[in-house]
Amino acid sequence: MTLLEAEIGVEYIIKDIVTEDEEMNAFLFSLGCYSGEPITVISHLKGGCIVSIKDARYNMDTELAKAISI
């Protein structure tokens, strides 16, 4: 399941980051988004979703949200 399919307000654990793009991998890692880390979807938007990672909120577009497996 990806972040786009996640329920709002439920805490999930990131299982994997599925991308071939090293730059995207490095960006997500810098946000604290890596395997084993808890993540919560705050809301779904037309172009992606807003998530909470380590007490910070981020707006992720559809491409980033599809890359995160929970």
Summarize this, please?
It comes from Anaerotignum lactatifermentans. The protein has two helices and six strands, in the order E-E-H-E-E-E-H-E. By secondary structure, the protein is of the alpha+beta class.
Commentary on this structure:
The protein has 70 residues and is α+β, with helices and mostly antiparallel strands. 21% of the residues lie in helices and 39% in strands. It contains two helices and six strands. The chain has a four-stranded antiparallel beta sheet. Strand 4 and strand 5 form a beta hairpin. It is globular, with a radius of gyration of 11 Å. It starts with 10 loop residues before the first strand and ends with a strand.
What string, H for helix and E for strand, traces the elements in order?
Answer: EEHEEEHE
* Broad CATH class: Mainly Beta
Structural class: alpha+beta
- Please state the second-level CATH architecture: Roll
What proportion of the residues form beta strands (DSSP E)?
A: 35-45%
Report low-confidence residues grouped into runs of 5 or more.
none
Roughly what is the average pLDDT, rounded to an integer? 91
What is the domain tally?
Answer: 1
- The CATH homologous superfamily: Ferrous iron transport protein A (FeoA)
> Gap between N and C termini, in Å?
6 Å
CATH topology-level fold name: SH3 type barrels
Shape: globular
Helix % is: 10-25%
Strand order of the largest sheet: 1-3-4-5
Main beta-sheet annotation: 4 strands, antiparallel
User: Count the strands?
Assistant: 6
Give me the Rg, rounded: 11 Å
